[in-house]
Amino acid sequence: xxxxxxxxxxxxxxxxxxxxxxxxxxxxxxxxxxxxxxxxxxxxxx
Length: 46
Known about the structure:
Layout: H1 8-14, H2 22-35, H3 37-45
């Protein structure tokens, strides 16, 4: 089982397009976690 997002319906009906590609979104996500370790460690610990 896997997740596969498809924004074509929302693009057709509302004219919305994602700002990032999947690749750039993942890269930005990982970079944020690497730059904010103190924050997410505290959040993880509760």
